[in-house]
Amino acid sequence: MSILRKLPKLPVTDLRGVVLPLAFLALWYGLTALQLVNTKLIVPPGAVVAAAWQVIGSGQLLAGLQASLARDLAGFVAGSGAGILFGLLLGVSPWARRLAGPTFHTLKQISLFAWLPLLSTWLGTGDAAKILFIALSAFYPVALNTFEGVRGVTQAQLEVAHVLGFSRRQRAWRLVLPAAAPQIAIGLHLALLYAWLATIGAEYLLGSSGHGIGSVVIRGKAAFNVELIIVGMLLIGVVGMALNRAASLVEARLLHWRGPGR
């Protein structure tokens, strides 16, 4: 009994998140093992594991993941950088808000995937169109949150900066950007998730040319290989979850100065 008391106890909240996946896995296994479903459509979990092992061993999955992440990173960096610059411009310049604000707020209402036919007409279905589409997906949340963050700087804060004799550059670097940083971080977090979704959507909807996780799913669909489709779906979900976790950790690290609970 003394040994049992010394064993570490996991908090109940740590186990709640696995209950539903385990229940689903048990139901999935039971239905296929008892032949209660069409196993050509709902394949057994073991077949999915075997397909994953095979595609990992062939190197196709790693090559596809690398290609997808490269497109995702390129589009995210380009779109986020443009979004921060544009959001800052709208936030600090009334002239820019009057000139470009109405157009920006109109264009953001267009569904992102509605741009795909136009992009494919202009640039084809290669990496250029895919990266531009990913960049668009990252641009809007970053630009909007940057704008909201800059607009959140109060008149009282600006007056204090004026009293302290801040130059225009000092106001930007020592007041506006720090004040807007939490909103910018939120925009970057959202952009990272949107960019990953756009990466998979672009690879799937703009054709299977080149490597990519979307291409793996397309090959599975073309061959009616349900196991390969599920492997691709699971990898997409795992990568998305990892990106979300990484973004949360980086955000907490960069904004630690706000203190806990903020």
CATH topological fold name: MetI-like fold
Summed up, the helix count is 11
User: Which architecture name does CATH use?
Assistant: Orthogonal Bundle
At the first level of CATH, what is the class? Mainly Alpha
Main beta sheet: strand number and arrangement? none
Number of domains: 1
Mean pLDDT: 81
| Number of E-state strands | 0
Corresponding CATH superfamily: MetI-like
User: Into which percent range does the helicity of residues fall?
Assistant: over 70%
Rg over CA atoms, rounded to whole Å, is 24 Å
What this model shows, in words?
- This protein has helices at 2-6, 12-33, 45-58, 60-92, 94-107, 116-123, 127-151, 155-163, 168-205, 213-222, 226-254.
- The protein is mainly α.
- It has a single domain (45-258), classed as MetI-like (MetI-like fold), CATH 1.10.3720.10.
Short structural description:
This protein has 262 residues and is mainly α. The protein has 11 helices and no strands.
List the helices and strands and how they pair.
Blueprint: H1 2-6, H2 12-33, H3 45-58, H4 60-92, H5 94-107, H6 116-123, H7 127-151, H8 155-163, H9 168-205, H10 213-222, H11 226-254
Label this structure with key terms.
single chain; 262 residues; mainly alpha; MetI-like fold; 11 helices; 79% helix; 0% strand
